[in-house]
Amino acid sequence: MTIETISTSKAHGGVQGVYAHDSEVTGTRMTFSVFVPEHEAGEKLPVLWYLSGLTCTHANVTDKGEFRGPCAEHRVIFIAPDTSPRGEGVANDDAYDMGQGAGFYVDATQEPWAKHFRMRSYIEQELPALIAAHFPVADMGAQAITGHSMGGHGALTIGLRNPDRFRSVSAFAPIVAPGQVPWGEKALGGYLGPDRAAWRQADAVALIEDGARVPDLLVDQGDADQFLAEQLRPELLADACEKAGIALTLRMQPGYDHSYNFISTFMGDHVAWAAQRLRG
Fold it and tell me: Which positions are annotated as active-site residues?
């Protein structure tokens, strides 16, 4: 389980790095970034995963997320994977919401996607093992996860499917019910096939309806988000959480859109939320 260091630089007393490795799960070269706060020799720190949205790579949040100050303050490692496999020979789509840059954090079962698009296994299994082998991480059975839009969908579904592993789950403007919105219907139908029963493990609202539970969730959503009414629909998550008895903190943020200006504004709150639960 070797990694290549692409770059490192000092930030907020810690180290911001970009790394790459050959993934057995996706069959491609995968790139990710890791911020490790300043720490004592031999000290282990808790982990917060950030899953990015459509069209993004690891670089979007690394460059614009403004997480390093809060992570240094709360002493939390921040990991930003890519959103899909990439490269020559990897299937793609002409649209931005399918294919490279749009993996939706599922393991595809349909052609031409099944060979490489195994982002669920990559995020849930392969990359955590790689992180544990190469970075000063504490208990990998007690992690935190967050994400934006498609990545918010990924954070919610991965957290709900693995409540024993993730003590903290949050999201920025997530796609909460992909089985009920155009982005999700296209992606899940393409990756997983026409049987909607197969989609339920990749749909946060459906997972909750089917019995998945976490103690609490934090969701920030801008009320000026251009995708709010058609693609995001946080009211569906609120209804599911209320029926299931999950403590949802849904904060509708006045005037904020879907951009990294929104994400960076509230990133510190999500890091603090995670740190409290990781060390609580």
Answer: 149, 225, 258
Alpha helices in the chain (DSSP H): 58-64, 68-74, 119-121, 127-134, 150-161, 182-192, 204-209, 234-244, 260-279
Please choose, from the candidates 90, 86, 116, the residue with its C-alpha nearest in 3D space to the C-alpha of residue 101.
Answer: 86
All residues at 6 or more sequence positions from 99 whose CB lies less than 8 Å from its CB, including other chains: 84, 91, 92, 93, 113
**Gap between the Cα atoms of 270 and 95, Å rounded:** 31
- Report the sign of the C-alpha dihedral through residues 208, 210, 211, 212, in that order: negative
Per-residue pLDDT tens over the stretch 132-166: 999 999 988 899 999 999 999 999 999 999 999 99
Structure tokens at 136: 């000063």
The phi and psi torsions of 218 (rounded to 5 degrees) equal: -120, 125
pTM: 0.98
Give the whole-angstrom CA distance, residue 261 versus residue 38: 26
In angstroms, the CA 136 to CA 134 distance is 7
Prior bond of 178 cis (ω within 30°)? no
pLDDT digits 0-9 by tens, 15-34: 999 999 999 999 999 999 99
